[in-house]
């Protein structure tokens, strides 16, 4: 069936004897099934058979969803995306409506409900339909953010583009589907709705009331999610939110995540001369903003990658004993991932990835000043820009964390402004930086011993033979704080492959992950 | 007549009495001229009157020249540019031919000759018709690199776009003409050819044999100029090359420059992971190449802007007593320019611009890593790039200067390669940078007491009432070393305004400078 794309932990040794035993058991089971003997299909098997029989229509529908642009700036396309999802829900018999924000022009939440007679609990299934910004020029040849394409594997590792399957053809689980949002997070929308569809079509009744909540501003920092959630407090009453976003573990093992880091972006623009200057006639006299920016950024982290901003690691609420124990059980694939990613030394002074995602971070998302490569000219640029990304853990406050960064910048001798510098400011301050913090939010964590959470872990475990990884927190961020405001509890159950290029060019989903995700969501819907 | 765009030195005080006296003298002169009395027109006056009477055809021709793209990558357009210039020369009765390089595919030199009966000396007039790379998106609204447009002044200071003049209309000398190459250096081509035209049409005979030499690879570092010059050694025999490139002094005073700095560009690419990563899931574990690049660049200069690379200021040949004396006479407008450019502190530990351009320099021309602003995504970039520009003075060698930079990079713990890093290199070296030095060349200086050079200064002085500034060297660079190889002597006589945005977006020429340049070139052609 082709090599698996998953990384295998060193701890899971391959045993030829066990494999042989398993193969005989499978043959025996198939013989009994063909003969009409054996136990009736489990719900899990029914869901899988339904998906296997419907790969063409499911993929066709998913590719139509992916073909609608979903970046923040393109609000018209975001509305089309919302309408398309509402249509998907209605086709599945889900009562559907759009929940607008009080602020005009905001992409609406697509909301839906299915009441289960006799159910005692209610679960909300969350995903977001907006995606990160795109720069189409950076995508690999033949790929484009909103022209979904199948490939035989990761194109970065020689995967070839494939035509769409025909009726009667099956996909290979290691194939990739390329498009912005294919993993982050239209995959969540698709896994949830296809999971529900598979249940209904297989005549399996959900065990709980279901609510569906698809957001359109997550990648923008969910600036209006609070308005929508608080304006629909009664409608959204629930026992638990299932957040379907992010990747499963790098080992390919399914994962339940109890919290998420907070996040805030800060744009920086350093100013030089008003107009670009000839680097020969004025170089090393007129100040170079690219150099000043480099000096500023270099001052923010030491050579081991530790953030050197004063107080950056203060405020952190330590992990509980239960969380520390769970963290110790998370497989450590650092060496294997590092080799795959092709770098010789990780940041973090020897701490592992699992530990580091439980700490606040500072990352440079991008740099820009004038031009490089073939477009470079011999100039002193007028400005130099960077985008910072600060991830926050429990105890950090996004505004306080930004304030620490601003204070650090001031200590480096910069005048900090939030506007274009005035003539008076230019005349007065040798180093000027414009700081543009975006909307941020804080981290949240759900206690790992919450009974309903334990039931979710058990339901997910029923869909897989490998252990479900339990993470105290995700390295990525989710607007969980908003749900907390209406007293909701959240649990994240991701479906995407870890090597999905999410947030970047060539975003993709491994088809096996989408199919597994459908089974995961259907299993959770069967909780009583 | 509109405010002048020139900066005025503090030393030149405005005197109302002197201005009144001058005004009366002008009126008297005009009255005499109208009455048919007075001395016959000087050659200088005839050249000016010719230009004044032909602004429309001169501008029309120049704008047609500017409309042909001239960036290095677009060799087809460079050939069109060369043909167009050859046509301009033939129309003026100049014997013209293209001089190809031995290497195929190189934009040819456009060469021309005018023999002056009885002349004892020969001058070659040099300009280049290629331009720096462009990024059209960075130009101001309404402007485009190859759609020349007139404006009432600098668009950055509120200058308005103007329609082309009609027959009978005159231009204002403070108007600007916007296009790539309008100053650097199609202005040189135009000033030389229009200067010659004005002489011929005014029936003034040149005093020397004239040769015209227009290059098409100067902004690329003139990689094939040596081939062409050495392959045409006899054809190019001369007493002096007049290099018409660069800006006049910031005061607006005309300028003769005896040398030029050398130049070499070095591209840097720092590598991170093979694929872009989610900044939440991997940030502060996977190394960030933007941070590594910032740390590397920050290490290259101290907080005063002095280059901290070991040995960077070694090798420099000191200025002669004559050069030091000339430098001391160059007007110092630092404070005024600094105010106009809008920065509070210059680099260079208190040394002035005139001193600093006589030292080697290191400038960051551009930075790029992933995206910033609205396109920024929460990623760890895979690479971070910078382009360095090293300017060289007499004594520096371009390869030796690059070697010092490379050694510095290695001392910062980087593995330096000239190719994409291999898997083995990625696995072995924590910090990897790809270094791509471009073709560079060294500085040259002509002795300031050379008799023919003194004659050129005197000829230029005859076209202006303000003192001609004499610079030992130009901050910018010119491939003078190539001419030196065939024993030629060079002198640079620029025409462009200093605030021309040369090398950047919104490049422009002040029309008064183009008109003055025509007079300057015509005056030099009259040397005996």
Structural overview:
Chain A has 528 residues and is α/β, with parallel strands linked by helices. The first copy, chain A, has two domains: 41-258 and 446-525, Zn peptidases (Aminopeptidase), CATH 3.40.630.10; 262-316 and 359-437, Alpha-Beta Plaits (2-Layer Sandwich), CATH 3.30.70. Helices cover 32% and strands 19% of the residues of chain A. The first copy, chain A, is built from 16 helices and 21 strands. Chain A has helices at residues 16-34, 43-53, 55-66, 75-91, 186-201, 225-230, 279-282, 289-298, 321-329, 334-341, 353-356, 398-411, 423-428, 451-461, 480-485, 511-525; strands at residues 95-99, 109-114, 122-128, 149-151, 161-162, 176-178, 209-215, 240-243, 255-257, 259-271, 277-278, 361-370, 379-380, 383-392, 415-417, 432-437, 444-445, 469-471, 474-477, 490-492, 508-510. In chain A, strands 10, 12, 14, 15, 16, 17 and 19 form a seven-stranded mixed beta sheet that branches. A six-stranded mixed beta sheet of chain A has the order 1-2-7-3-8-20. In chain A, helix 13 (423-428) links the parallel strand 15 (415-417) and strand 16. In chain A, helix 2 (43-53) crosses helix 5 (186-201), helix 3 packs antiparallel against helix 5 (186-201) and helix 5 (186-201) crosses helix 16 (511-525). Chain A is globular, with a radius of gyration of 25 Å. Chain A starts with 15 loop residues before the first helix and ends with a helix. Mean pLDDT of chain A is 92; it is low at 1-15. Chains A and B meet through strand 10, strand 11, helix 7, helix 8 and helix 10 of A and strand 10, strand 11, helix 7, helix 8 and helix 10 of B. Strand 12 of chain A pairs antiparallel with strand 12 (361-370) of chain B. Chains A, B: This is Dipeptidase. Chains A, B: Keywords: Hydrolase, Metal-binding, Protease. Chains A, B: Pfam families: M20_dimer (PF07687), Peptidase_M20 (PF01546).
């Amino acid at each position: 069936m082709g090599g698996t794309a998953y990384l295998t932990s060193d701890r899971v040794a391959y045993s030829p004897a066990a494999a042989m035993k398993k193969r005989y058991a499978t043959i025996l089971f198939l013989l009994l099934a063909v003969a009409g003997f054996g136990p009736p299909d489990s719900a899990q098997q029914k869901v899988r058979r339904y998906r296997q029989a419907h790969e063409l229509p499911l993929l066709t529908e998913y590719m139509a969803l992916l073909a609608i642009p979903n970046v923040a700036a393109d609000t018209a396309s975001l509305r089309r995306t919302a309408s398309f999802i509402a249509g998907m829900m209605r086709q599945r018999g889900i009562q559907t409506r759009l929940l607008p924000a009080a602020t005009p022009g905001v992409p609406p939440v697509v909301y839906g409900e299915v009441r289960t007679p006799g159910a005692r609990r209610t679960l909300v299934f969350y995903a977001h339909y907006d995606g990160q910004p795109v720069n189409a020029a950076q995508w690999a040849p033949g790929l484009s953010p909103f022209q979904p394409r199948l490939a035989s594997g990761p194109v970065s590792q020689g995967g070839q583009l494939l035509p769409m399957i025909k009726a009667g053809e099956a996909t290979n689980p290691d194939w990739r589907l390329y498009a912005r949002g294919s993993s982050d997070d239209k995959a969540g929308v698709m896994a949830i709705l296809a999971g529900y569809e598979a249940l209904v079509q297989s005549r399996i009744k959900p065990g709980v009331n279901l609510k569906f909540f698809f957001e359109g501003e997550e990648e923008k920092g969910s600036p209006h999610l609070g308005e929508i959630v608080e304006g629909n407090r009664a409608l959204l009453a629930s026992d638990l939110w299932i957040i379907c976003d992010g990747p499963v573990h790098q080992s390919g093992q399914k994962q339940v995540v109890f919290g998420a880091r907070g996040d805030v972006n800060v744009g920086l623009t350093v100013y030089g001369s008003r107009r670009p200057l000839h680097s020969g006639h004025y170089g090393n006299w007129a100040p170079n903003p690219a150099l000043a920016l480099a000096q500023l950024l270099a001052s923010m982290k030491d050579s081991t990658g530790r953030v050197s901003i004063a107080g950056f690691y203060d405020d952190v609420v330590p992990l509980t004993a239960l969380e520390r124990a769970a963290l110790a059980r998370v497989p450590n694939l650092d060496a294997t991932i590092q080799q795959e990613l092709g770098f010789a030394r990780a940041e973090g002074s020897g701490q592992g990835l699992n530990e580091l995602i439980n700490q606040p971070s500072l990352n440079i998302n991008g740099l820009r000043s004038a031009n490089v490569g073939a477009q470079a000219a011999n100039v002193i640029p007028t400005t130099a820009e960077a985008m910072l990304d600060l991830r926050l853990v429990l105890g950090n406050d996004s505004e306080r964390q930004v304030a620490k960064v601003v204070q650090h910048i001031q200590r480096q001798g910069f005048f900090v402004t939030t506007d274009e510098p005035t003539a008076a400011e230019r005349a007065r301050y040798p180093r000027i930086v414009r700081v543009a913090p975006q909307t941020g939010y804080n981290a949240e964590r759900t206690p790992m011993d919450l009974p309903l959470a334990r039931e979710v872990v058990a339901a997910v475990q029923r869909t897989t033979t490998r252990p479900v990884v339990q993470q105290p927190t995700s390295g990525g961020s989710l607007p969980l704080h908003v749900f907390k405001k209406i007293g909701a509890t959240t649990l994240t159950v991701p479906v995407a492959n870890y090597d999905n290029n999410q947030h970047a060019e060539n975003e993709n989903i491994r088809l096996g992950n989408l199919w597994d995700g459908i089974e995961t969501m259907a299993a959770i819907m069967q909780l009583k």
